[in-house]
Amino acid sequence: MAHFFLHTMIGQVILTVLEALAVLVPLLLGVAYLTLAERKVMAAMQLRKGPNVNGPFGLLQAFADAIKMITKETVIPSGANRFLFLFAPFLTFSLAMTAWAVIPTNDGWAIANINVGVLYLLAISSLGVYGVLIAGWASNSKYAFLGGLRAAAQMVSYEVSIGLVIVSVLLAVGSLNLNDIVLAQRHVWFCLPMFPMFIIFFISALAETNRAPFDLPEGESELVAGFFVEYSALAFGLFFLGEYANMFLMSGMVSILFLGGWLPPIGIAPFTWIPGPLWLIAKILFCLFVFIWVRATFPRYRYDQLMRLGWKVFLPLSLVWMVLTAGFLLATGLLPQGGAS
Amino acid sequence: MMTQIVFYVFATVLVLSAGTVVSARNPVHSVLFLILAFFNAAGLFLVAGAEFLAMILVIVYVGAVAVLFLFVVMMLDVRFAQMREGLQRYAPFGAAVGLVLLAELALAFSHWQVAQDIGSVPHVVAAPGRTNTAALGDVLYTHYIFLFESCGLVLLVAMIGAIVLTLRERPMGRRQNIDRQHERTVTDTLAMMTVPLGQGVAANGGFRRPEESYYIASVPGSYGVTADPVPQGKPVEGPLKHGADNHGGLAQ
After folding, report:
1. What Å distances lie between residue A270 and A264, A266, B128, CA to CA?
2. Count of domains for chain A
């Protein structure tokens, strides 16, 4: 049996498909319930009840929404570029799924444990902008187009600081492998020694996923619904799910880069009894809660303030921190030697 | 065998999409095909085992450069009739440039010689067990550090040049100086007025805030503010501005 899965070609293909399903099925369920969780958490914060009609505690609301979206009519505006119009939501959604191939859920548990895992994540998250940009252009609508342009400028700006934050983490790890990055946090999670970078990364993650207070691409007060104003039914649903899947992905990146991935807070008995994947899930859920908390708390940024924050505050700060990290590691002799992988 | 199939798939799509970049009528489609070409080039790098280069190609070219391309091209107002008109006028010129380039390529390739002992030429080889990311780092940051840094300097100069060329003062732009806004206090901006019954605030200069408060918050030279702010306490003249004796209503 083990020989069939590991050493024959068909076995390997089946194994890979099973591995992918083992990640994607919980992820999709999580995405479905995140939409519900967001409404519930925000309702609690605003002293409301939130959805509570469908099923116990409104738990079937996610499925009710899904069925509603599937059964509605897909409207394609006249003058829209048909192929690109339908391609954009699929791109957004599938990119958010693709990235999970490299996320390790336990020591060595990743579908693809590649040497350049961090770069892969960075590449996938930088592609996310195309879904939004293409949707804005293909809709042939000025609101959608403005939303798309805003999204492009915003995501490109915040990627720069995300990249620099990741570089300072990599300096301390000495490897681009996500497994090595988590293992390097055995003694102390990077969110403690690199606390400012942790905060910058989290805020940039908010901007990268177009979440409040940086949800300008969809800013409904000015742009109706921004880049997906023309979308309906399943295409709209895919954008919606893509946004939440991106939130999962960014929370996963925060957990792996700064919160020690699958590692328990301290490596002693009661903590080590809990298996690694559960720790990772707990950390991701915590980050997602903060995402929602932020949305319920802060008003939307103005566009020029958003750009100022990205380019004039985060970029210099992360650049200086990167130099400081390198200098500190070199001075104390802690700089990891060579590729650890 | 598998590697060859993958190589030919990537290479075919790369060449086809590169051709479409030139021949597509819609410039947005051209850029999208360019992105597809970048992807397939990254795939070719992966086939060659250069995983770092593949990822960097996607991050830099697809994630940043092509986004800006698309950003600009989407905002172009393309009129195809006008383009065809331009095509006839510039076609001979374009053809001449193409011919010159072709001639140069032909010259270069006709004198192309490959050294006989190419295998024995010493070049930097990654130590066994080094990942190719580490090997690239060895080459760039250890063997060729000065050349690499001077490349960075050239790019820096180009960047500063681009900023200097496009930076201009726009006197009517609405700019915000966050520090100055934070420095504002209630006493700077808020005035309590005793308004005579039935007369409104017209006699006190309308609803305008005290003149000085504008200069505390805003950037000199931006919209609504003169480049040379009026010193505090000095009587202000002009039809819009309230006279010195009208300050009687302001709480001190």
Report:
1. 10, 9, 42
2. 2
